[in-house]
Design goal:
alpha/beta, Rossmann fold, 2 domains, five-stranded mixed sheet, 11 helices, 11 strands, elongated
Length: 273
């Protein structure tokens, strides 16, 4: 490198690189996916336990999660960069041991775009981040155009992990729903992924309910939920585990996730016919 590369992570920490990182550990699935799509596959030496896309990451060492990172195993891999969430407190020990930990926030579309740009710069291919984001934007636009006119403006509740948390309007999921012309029942002021009282959903009467398919059969058994027309009339977008994982990961598959949402909405429209 002719000049050192200086970047600032989302915790405000400045990192100076005189040599681009060659041994990278990722401690969030979305960061593993971003690094892979940006071309870091050969440099990945370890990932968190939940990273499972693409299939090639299965060969890499598993290093725990946000709250139970395997510190000794990570150190033993001798990484020159660890990509992690701003909320991963268990990784503070790595910094105390002298490892470079880049903390990234992953709540909004802007966070994803910024992460792609930063990781691409660290790989020495800065233009690649913008290219990947431009592809996501194109996919979002295509997905939005596929949403049936009758469902544009429909209110929606997107459940996280079987409740009681939901994807709020400020989250990357909420922003994708908005790009598709849908109205989130979760008010922006409640934050990205608020814990909701189930009565809030009943009062809001969403026209579409989204979540894991295997959890939706029991929705009618929740107190008051039999009063939800979306539940009674099966206006449900229930996703398989792989699709749901894609939907709830703020990474380079945002556009593919939007396409999956559009697919479900089109299926609901056909069910009306």
């Amino acid at each position: 490198m002719a000049q050192p590369l200086v970047v600032q992570d989302d915790r405000g920490t400045e990192h100076r690189f005189t040599v681009l990182p060659q041994r990278i550990v990722t401690m969030m699935p979305s960061l593993s996916e971003a690094a892979w799509v940006l071309g870091a596959g050969p440099r990945l030496v370890g990932v968190d336990r939940f990273s499972n896309w693409p299939a090639e990451v299965a060969r890499l060492p598993r290093l725990g999660g946000l709250e139970d990172a395997q510190i000794e195993a990570i150190v033993a891999l001798n990484p020159d960069l660890v990509l992690a969430s701003t909320s991963a407190r268990s990784l503070d020990r790595l910094e105390q041991l002298g490892l470079r930990v880049l903390r990234l926030r992953s709540q909004t579309h802007d966070d994803v775009r910024r992460t792609l740009a930063l990781v691409a710069a660290l790989l020495g291919t800065p233009a690649r981040g913008a290219e990947v984001w431009a592809g996501i934007e194109r996919e979002l636009a295509v997905a939005a155009a596929r949403v049936p006119a009758s469902l544009r403006g429909a209110s929606v509740y997107f459940e996280i992990g079987g409740g009681p948390h939901a994807a709020g309007a400020q989250s990357f999921i909420g922003q994708t729903l908005a790009r598709l012309g849908l109205v989130n029942i979760v008010a922006p002021e409640l934050g990205p992924f608020p814990r909701l009282n189930p009565e809030v959903v009943v009062r809001a009467q969403p026209q579409v309910v989204m979540g894991l398919a295997r959890e939706q059969a029991a929705l009618v058994e929740r107190p008051g939920w039999s009063a939800l027309a979306a539940v009674r009339e099966r206006r449900l977008c229930g996703f398989s585990e792989p699709d749901y994982e894609m939907l709830v990961r703020p990474g380079p598959r945002l556009g593919a996730a939007a396409a999956r949402l559009a697919d479900c909405l089109r299926q609901l429209e056909r069910g009306r016919d």
